[in-house]
Amino acid sequence: MTSLATPDELDLDIDAAPRSPRGRRERRTTTRPIPAADALAPVTGIAVALGLWWFVTAVLAAPGSMLRSFAPAPTWDALVTLLRDGSVFDDTTSSMWRLTAGLGLAAAAGIACGAVIGARRIVERGTRPVLMFLRMISPLSWAPVAISLFGVGDSPVIALVAATAVWPILMSTADGVRRIDPDHLRVARGLGASRWEVVRSVAWPSAQPYLLSGIRMAIGISWVVLVPAEMLGVTSGLGYAILNAKDQLAYSDITALILIIGLIGYAIDAQARWLLQPRRERKAAAR
């Protein structure tokens, strides 16, 4: 039979107006000019944060105190030195590899388990106490277990990232599958749709927003956990770079690395937010 097509596959233009008498399609204008206050608000927030940083570390701090090592001026010098040295790029590559590998494992396990749990109420009720118990354990609590099982190196860090990311993906997938309208499934089966066509044309479009939201949440949490996990027996990565700077008493390097970690995390979240939104929303935003 002919597969059931989703609205995205049909590429319907929801915002399109009816055709005019002359046969031309007229489009509604959905974009609005951004007020100047809204455009300046992020810039103002950043300026205020930088001003507070400078005031606390360069004005309030007593001369010769350690707090002055975290001021903007020495941090900027350390940041320039790190970028010229190039080692921060190698550390960033190592961190991104561990993040990607851990997220891949978490997505494979979380989607599979979440689909089973969401599809069967008895399975959901039976696994809820154990899952809630495991979910509330800090991922870093598993660090000694991961090191005991996998030794030192990339493997325990990847395992900790996967243990962090699996829960939002699993819970979001189960919630999305649980919210699929049974009437839609019955209609698809009544039209003779195969199991794969039901999954592709009914189940996936219904559960997709929940799953993508869980993946984005998992990316953010995993990036936060990755840095302290890299302080456990590895010789590369941004977490290791911070630990190494602390051992060398290079406090301005620590602040510079914190800035790098924050900027990379912000970029990752912005990219994930754009990539994981439905195709129709991406097309509307691009207009």
Structure in words:
- By secondary structure, the protein is an all-alpha fold.
- It has a single domain, classed as MetI-like (MetI-like fold).
- It contains twelve helices and two strands.
- The protein has helices spanning 7-10, 36-60, 72-85, 87-119, 121-135, 143-150, 154-178, 182-190, 195-229, 238-247, 251-275, 279-286, and strands at residues 16-19, 25-27.
- It has a two-stranded antiparallel sheet.
- Strand 1 (16-19) and strand 2 (25-27) form a beta hairpin.
- The longest helix has 35 residues, at 195-229.
- The chain is globular, with a radius of gyration of 25 Å.
- Residues 1-27 have low confidence and may be disordered.
List the SSEs and their pairings.
Blueprint lengths: L6 H4 L5 E4 L5 E3 L8 H25 L11 H14 L1 H33 L1 H15 L7 H8 L3 H25 L3 H9 L4 H35 L8 H10 L3 H25 L3 H8 L1
Antiparallel strand pairs: 1-2
Organism: Streptomyces violaceus
Keywords: Cell membrane, Membrane, Transmembrane, Transmembrane helix, Transport
Membrane topology: Multi-pass membrane protein
Question: According to CATH, what is the topology?
Answer: MetI-like fold
What would you report as the Rg, rounded to the nearest angstrom? 25 Å
With helices defined by DSSP (H or I, 4 residues minimum), what is the helix count?
12
Q: What is the class in the CATH system?
A: Mainly Alpha
Strand content: under 5%
Tell me the count of domains.
Answer: 1
CATH fourth-tier homologous superfamily: MetI-like
User: What is the arithmetic mean of pLDDT?
Assistant: 80
The assigned CATH architecture is Orthogonal Bundle
Q: How is the largest sheet built, in terms of strand order?
A: 1-2
* Low-pLDDT ranges: 1-27
Overall helicity: over 70%
Class from secondary-structure proportions: mainly alpha
| SSE pattern, N- to C-terminal | HEEHHHHHHHHHHH
Distance between the termini: 36 Å
Principal-axis shape equals globular
Largest sheet: 2 strands, antiparallel
Number of strands: 2
